[in-house]
């Protein structure tokens, strides 16, 4: 027996099991959009670099006729960004006329070669705000898929039980040779790329067969998958297994700790998992068997994952002198490590700055802390970057964006809140004055820590000019408003509680007085939920159009309209409210939990639970039954004949033996009979001890009225 494990001139490529993407990739770009950001000084036209195009890894075919490789890099920034590149961590020197040139932000490599250009590339984008570093892009050289031909093109060797071409090594295996295998062999290695498909032929090598051997022998596995195969979540995983033997061995696959998924492809010599998950991790076995014996090989698929962000940093504006804590977190297997960059350079703990894995803690920020920061999470499968700009601000107080309200109306006897929120960094100290008098906290006046002024129990004497003075080490500013005291809003006629029956109409009165210079609005709520008076077909109406009258009419009152009604009369400066309770009485609700027990031939015992009485005591219960499958509900005779409202059990009489029944209960009060209970479970009365004298139609219960 013989095999072609590697013919002269055949390129051999091994695909690392932990590769996260197909080996052959077009260098494309990832689009990452984010809004423009403010600068250190807060100018809306100045912000640090934000990547829009970043390089991606690729596999470039050796001996390709392509003249160049382009690694894309473009960042949005104001002022515009300048670009640098690193290869294997070292800054590149890009000179005009050299093979490696900077075109915009892109790196263009002309006549690429494995010896000079294979490696890890990163783009750095900078402007006066700071610097950010792109993700890593790996440039590899090699081939992707293999086929073998015999003697001439396109006479390709079929992949059948006797032949196998490994896509890991490129080797051709023949389980048992015969005369048809004699000839000249060449390997065709093909790279499939977005911009082209490249194929390379090896030199032909001749296979000679000294003598055909017809002896039978047991399988020996020659193409083995590794003892450990590392794969990333979502990656396609292919295990290869092929054996020599005579007769040609049959290949079978199994998962030692479970079963193979029907979505997987098991074409004898290969087991392919299209999108591996953590559930697919485990030990797999290939068995080669023929009539002379068997051989097995086992290997473990270990599923891991590239880093993935759980929490990222975002652009932040912070006051000079303040403290700041930034955090980022990433998931992955193995667990990612986290490091930090400032303007593209590694960041370590120092005075005022503590670096603790995913946490970055600043104390007493100063202007030099401004810049571009990046959180970097990495494990052996990849590296991800999260970028953000820190803008440390130092601003004198400025009221232009948020002045004190110019006119501040307030109700006599009420309370007013006046805010003072100038833009300032660091936070400004605030003082308030009325006229020329500085205000201090008292029983009626409070200045909160954030500078808000609160005045309680307001009187006409509180009218006047109020000025907020704000100051920090950068400067000072002030803003003034005028407090105008108005008459308080009062409820002059409050709604009265009421007790009505279902279907009645009711008007709840509500009148109010208010300052005539202001508009008055009435708002009604039921159990704190606003009532929509404009709902078409609703039960609520505004009873009077006068501004000071807010009466509410309830039409055709339903049980759901019971509750606490609140009338609120309000102006822009204050409000007043009064409450009233409305009780709506109606027939009882349905009883619950109907249970049948003590089943005889003509009697059963029913029990139930009380339903809502809806504010009117239950006077009596009525029991009904129906025969199955399609009988009508009819009232039945009971013991006692009249079931009082405090009862919860009764006996049903006059049933037909050996008949299927269901039962239900209805409650009544002075306002009527309520909805019936749900039907009981189906029961069958017992067989009579003697022949029945009447038909089921003769049972003694009458139709419901």
From TrEMBL:
Q: Where is the Ig-like domain?
A: 55-140, 219-302, 307-391, 397-484, 489-583
Q: How far does the signal peptide extend, from start to end residue?
A: 1-38
Alphabetical list of SMART domains matching this protein: FN3 (SM00060), IG (SM00409), IGc2 (SM00408)
Query: Does the record's keyword annotation contain Electron transport?
Result: no
**Which superkingdom does the taxonomy of this entry point to?**
Eukaryota
InterPro entries registered for this protein in UniProt: FN3_dom, FN3_sf, Ig-like_dom, Ig-like_dom_sf, Ig-like_fold, Ig_I-set, Ig_sub, Ig_sub2
Using the record's annotation, list all stretches that form the Fibronectin type-III domain.
Answer: 590-688
Print the keywords alphabetically: Disulfide bond, Immunoglobulin domain, Repeat, Signal
Residues of the region (Disordered) are 673-705
Q: Which PROSITE patterns match?
A: FN3, IG_LIKE
Indicate what this protein is called per its UniProt record.
Contactin-2 isoform X2
Please name the source species: Erinaceus europaeus (Western European hedgehog)
Gene of this entry: CNTN2
